[in-house]
Specification:
It comes from Rhodobacter capsulatus (Rhodopseudomonas capsulata). By secondary structure, the protein is mostly helical. It is built from three helices and no strands. The chain has one domain: Methane Monooxygenase Hydroxylase, Chain G, domain 1 (Up-down Bundle), CATH 1.20.58.1000.
C-alpha cells in the first residue's frame, strides 16, 4: 500500500467507486437487464480495476525508487511510462 497519505486517499476513493460500480452491476443482473448494458458495465469495472492496479503500482514504484524528478529519476520516469502503457 502506498505510504503517501494523498496516494492512499486517492486509491481508497477509487476502490469506493469500483465498489459502487460492482453494486450497480449486481443490481442489473438481479433485475434481468439486457446483456448489452451488463457487458458494458463489466467492461467499465474491468477498466476501473486496471486503473486501480496501475495507480497502486505507480505509487509503489515512486515509494521504492523515488520520484521521477529526483536523482535517478529518469529511470523511474521511464518505468512509470512503461507501466502506464501496459496497464491502461
Amino acid at each position: 500500500m502506498p505510504n503517501n497519505p494523498e496516494d492512499k486517499k486517492r486509491i481508497l476513493a477509487r476502490v469506493k467507486r469500483i465498489t459502487g460500480q460492482c453494486e450497480a452491476l449486481s443490481r442489473a443482473l438481479e433485475s434481468g437487464s439486457d446483456c448489452g448494458p451488463i457487458l458494458q458495465q463489466i467492461a467499465a469495472v474491468r477498466g476501473a480495476v486496471n486503473g486501480l492496479m496501475a495507480e497502486v503500482l505507480e505509487a509503489h514504484i515512486r515509494d521504492e525508487f523515488g520520484p521521477p524528478e529526483g536523482e535517478g529519476g529518469a529511470k523511474t520516469g521511464e518505468l512509470l511510462a512503461l507501466v502506464r502503457s501496459y496497464l491502461k
